[in-house]
TrEMBL record:
Protein name according to UniProt: Glutamate ABC transporter substrate-binding protein
Lineage: Bacteria, Bacillati, Actinomycetota, Actinomycetes, Kitasatosporales
UniProt entry keywords in alphabetical sequence: Signal, Transport
Family: Belongs to the bacterial solute-binding protein 3 family.
Domain Solute-binding protein family 3/N-terminal positions: 41-266
CDD domains membership: PBP2_GluB (cd13690)
Keyword DNA-binding recorded: no
Length: 281
């Protein structure tokens, strides 16, 4: 009789354990339930190699404007900073990462355009950037045509430099490197006269301590680049939640603070916060 009581107690404990496990183990790694904290995590796609925007620091922490925006949005979705897992999403894999469900959303200098809107949904835009030139602080380059006879650097595979040569400075000499860090180093050494890509990316590099005061943005505004937060196609509920979070970030001043902290040292003359929910190319 005593043995039977022990077995019943053990069975009851086992049932309780299994029930607790079933309830507590509902951890969705990409935060697809919308998030409410409570031990869950959310995976967010960012860049790891863009100072001022998305950078993985040597100590494993993350910094940059995109990181600040993503952290604020995640907080509004119910996730504390220690519940965020930042996942590196390279430009060529952003759409696939969302389609696979690898991440809940992506904040990674993700310019909104018609081709991308066929594959993903966007919240935002949360920053209006422009293609620009970064030159040395004492450079006489003040307009696009000044690049004629000069060496212009961009990253291999980018169309930025080609567009400048085709439409603005046909006599510019193009030099391509594997990454923007190499272009910036070339600018510093004098191997190139200017670097071109989005002004936000250029400002992020120029704001770094080891480059402070050495470079300036030409302020040419050669294109409009509306950065949006990418979400899996069809997930309109998450788009709506992120838009609400972005509107709050702008209204409470956190957006402006993030801009100044990440781009301020480069004297980046940012555009005002775009109208959230106004998805344009």
């Amino acid at each position: 009789m005593k043995l039977r009581k022990v077995s019943a107690a053990a069975a009851t404990a086992l049932v309780l354990t299994l029930t607790a496990t079933a309830c507590g183990g509902d951890k969705d790694d990409n935060g697809s339930d919308g998030g409410s904290g409570g031990g869950k995590q959310i995976k967010i796609g960012i860049k790891y190699d863009q100072p001022g925007l998305g950078l993985k620091e040597p100590d494993g922490t993350f910094s940059g404007f995109d990181v600040d925006v993503a952290t604020y949005v995640a907080k509004e979705l119910g996730y504390e900073p220690n519940q965020i897992e930042f996942v590196e999403t390279k430009s060529a894999d952003r759409e696939n990462a969302l389609a696979r469900g690898d991440v809940k959303f992506i904040a990674a200098t993700y310019s909104i355009n018609d081709e991308r809107k066929k594959l993903v949904d966007f919240a935002g835009p949360y920053l209006l950037a422009h293609q620009d030139l970064l030159v040395k602080a004492d450079s006489k380059i003040a307009k696009g045509t000044d690049l004629n006879g000069k060496t212009l650097c961009s990253v291999t595979g980018s169309t930025s430099a080609e567009n400048v040569k085709k439409d603005i400075a046909p006599k510019a000499q193009l030099k391509e490197y594997g990454g923007y860090s190499e272009c910036i180093a070339g600018l510093q050494s004098g191997a190139v006269d200017a670097v071109t890509t989005d002004d936000s990316i250029l400002a992020g590099f120029a704001a770094q301590e080891n480059y402070k005061g050495q470079f300036k943005l030409a302020g040419l505004k050669l294109s409009n680049e509306n950065y949006g937060i990418g979400v899996k196609k069809g997930d309109t509920a998450t788009v709506d939640k992120i838009n609400a979070a972005l509107e709050k970030m702008v209204s409470d001043g956190a957006w402006e603070t993030a801009v100044k902290e990440n781009f301020g040292p480069a004297n980046y003359k940012n555009e005002p916060a775009p109208k959230i929910g106004n998805i344009v190319q």
